[in-house]
Design goal:
Bound molecules: flavin mononucleotide
Largest sheet: 6 strands, parallel
Strand content: 5-15%
Number of domains: 2
Number of helices: 7
Number of strands: 6
Structural class: alpha/beta
CATH superfamily of the largest domain: Flavodoxin domain
CATH class of the largest domain: Alpha Beta
């Protein structure tokens, strides 16, 4: 009788420890997949996915992102964004491609007055002057390491801000793959990309694109998949 009681106690203890182990697993699991779920849900704005389908979407995204980024080597996403519209799009691109994100900032920062366009402000004057090259405060230390450089910028008076020309003339981009994209209130890409391409003729230029303000992460990812495909 005593041994039966001892056996039942042991059996109960074994059952309880097994149960505890299982519940530990399930509580650690959401933490482990939490980042993937969070990123894939935000990657897919229209998807109110459950955690499992969100995770599989994330896996799909990252595997295709890997194929695009792998085919283009180590990638830098450099952006200039004075009022913050271009910045999130550059971040989406860098995150998707597992690329380095670099902010191009002006040595003399653009104040609100400087960008009050059509008031003969600093930006107006720079854009009128083909030779204007506003100095950049930040430096890419290891540009040699990058195979692909994506440059994101706003449209200022129909073209890229002159600081983008400063950036393109500041490094040797020979042999690299270059790609630009921009945001604007309404203007199309126009001559913007062509003018930039003339500054670095020894690079391989991929087709640039203009995006509306507030473009989704998903749209940026789809475009990258398309444009970076070999
Ligand atoms: C000086 C200046 C000139 C601009 N010129 C144009 C233009 O020609 N066409 C247009 O559609 N938007 C123009 N815009 C609006 C910007 O392109 C748009 O707001 C852009 O998304 C800003 O990007 P950012 O917030 O990353 O700086 C201009 C903005 C500024 C400050």
């Amino acid at each position: 009788m005593k041994s039966l009681a001892l056996f039942s106690t042991l059996l109960l203890a074994l059952f309880l420890s097994l149960f505890a182990a299982c519940s530990d697993d399930s509580s650690s699991s959401p933490t482990g997949t939490g980042e993937a779920v969070e990123s894939s849900v935000s990657q897919d704005g229209k998807n109110s996915a459950t955690s499992s389908s969100a995770t599989s979407k994330d896996e799909t995204s990252s595997s295709s992102a890997t194929s695009a980024s792998k085919s283009r080597g180590k990638t830098l996403v450099a952006y200039f964004s004075r009022t913050g519209n271009t910045k999130p799009l550059a971040e989406y691109a860098a995150e998707y491609l597992d690329a380095t994100l670099f902010e191009i900032t002006a040595k003399i920062p653009y104040t609100d007055e400087d960008i009050a366009y059509y008031t003969d402000c600093r930006a107006d004057r720079e854009q009128k002057d083909e030779s204007a090259r506003p100095e950049i405060a930040t430096v890419v230390k290891n540009m040699d390491e990058y195979d692909t450089v994506i440059i994101a910028h706003p449209i200022w008076h129909g073209i890229a801000p002159r600081i983008i020309s400063t950036f393109l003339e500041g490094y040797d981009f020979s042999g690299k793959t270059l790609l630009t994209f921009c945001t604007s209130a309404s203007s199309p890409l126009g001559q913007s990309a062509k003018l930039l391409q003339e500054l670095t003729p020894n690079s391989t230029w991929l087709e640039s694109k203009r995006f509306a303000i507030g473009t989704s992460r998903e749209e940026i990812e789809e475009w990258l998949e398309d444009v970076l495909r070999p």
